[in-house]
Amino acid sequence: MIRAKSTLTMLATAVLFSVGGQAQAGATLDAVKNKGFVQCGISDGLPGFSYADAKGQYRGIDVDVCRAVAAAVFGDAEKVRFSPLTAKERFTALQSGEIDVLSRNTTWTSSRDAAMGLNFTGVTYYDGQGFLVNKELGVSSAKELDGATVCIQAGTTTELNLSDYFRSNSLKYTPITYDTSDESAKSLESGRCDVLTSDQSQLYAQRIKLAGPDNYVVLPEVISKEPLGPAVRQGDEEWFDIVRWTLFAMVNAEELGVTSENVEEIAKTTKNPDVARLLGAEGEYGKDLKLPKDWAVQIVKQVGNYGEIFERNVGSGSELKIERGLNALWNNGGLQYAPPVR
Asked: Of 91, 120, 109, which Cα lies nearest the Cα of 23?
């Protein structure tokens, strides 16, 4: 794992103080600028969201969120370092100051938001829990899984969701838990369990890694709401706003037709007040966030708008081929909606 523990420990000490025994965030932006990069917690390997490609470069929606934050702060999307984390490790890493932002296909829930010292900054992907089975099992619905052995990743919301679903439908099951998503997928492939349950996006990502992906099917039931998004430590509104508006900038850019290909030209020529404010051609909205005037230009130029990062990582330009669905813009039948820059 890429952690540089001694440096991070010193930085954590500098930006944290204790209130009633709970770590609270301090001047994160200053600490990030002093060290010269954003330390971002990501998954330990999930295609489409955060994974290392054949060249060892991290790719995925969650990775692009981290790169976008770096582009906003430094004007350089490459000024980011990644800490691959398991589900069990992720919250401790953020709470302790080991990472500056957690962008790791993590569900926004009340307990995580209120009781764990975290603040979720938005939703990068609207998801829901489902089931992946081998076609040889001969089932077409989750309601046919009575008595099944189910693989689950430990430390996730899927454990409670699974228990609730089977109990409410008077079904019995035997859980087998694993620390990583790869371990649970391999267990399904080896036949140790009958079904793998997780967020549907994760099921599609794991299926393409199996030796015979066409032998497996995602069942139609979606049994939960899983809004996935980045989180920061509570207590530092300045850093919270930066991460939140980084996401909002990408969503607004897509809605306004601003892409990585045209953003520089539009920033110079636009007559649209909404576009002008977003791209820094009008007003001082970057200053409000303690960011450069062209913060949104750099995000879109170097990383892309929301639609671009979706399509290349999990959509039509990827192996996953996931349709936009709920992740389409609000004016195109989906839920993605960002407040305006004004």
From this structure: 91
**DSSP bridge partners of 24:** 17
User: Per-residue pLDDT for 190 more than 70?
Assistant: yes
Closest CA to 162 of 133, 120, 128: 128
Tokens representing 313 are 């990582």
Look at residue 340 and give its three-state secondary structure. Answer: coil
64 vs 53: CA distance, rounded Å: 14
Q: Looking at residue 8, what is its pLDDT?
A: 42
Burial class (CB in 10 A: 0-12, 13-18, 19+), 137: middle
DSSP codes, 9-34: HHHHHHHEEEETTEEEE--HHHHHHH
Phi, psi of 228 (to 5 degrees): -95, 135
Q: Helices in the chain by DSSP H: which ranges?
A: 5-15, 28-35, 61-74, 90-95, 110-115, 158-168, 181-190, 200-207, 237-255, 263-269, 273-278, 285-288, 295-302, 306-313
Query: What pLDDT, on a 0 to 100 scale, did the predictor assign at position 181?
Result: 81
User: pTM of the predicted model, to two decimals?
Assistant: 0.86
Report how far residue 34's alpha carbon sits from residue 242's, in angstroms, rounded to the nearest whole number: 17
Instruction: Walk me through the domains of the chain, giving residue ranges and CATH numbers.
Output: 5-125+228-328 (3.40.190.10), 129-224 (3.40.190.10)
User: Is 298 in a helix, a strand, or coil?
Assistant: helix
Q: What is the mean pLDDT of the chain?
A: 91
Tell me how far apart the alpha carbons of residues 263 and 307 are, in angstroms, rounded to a whole number. Answer: 14
Q: What is the average pLDDT across 73-84?
A: 98
**Looking at the predicted structure, is the pLDDT value of residue 102 above 50?**
yes
pLDDT in tens, 133-158: 999 999 999 999 999 999 998 878 89
Radius of gyration of the chain (CA): 21
Quick one: average pLDDT of 246-261? 98
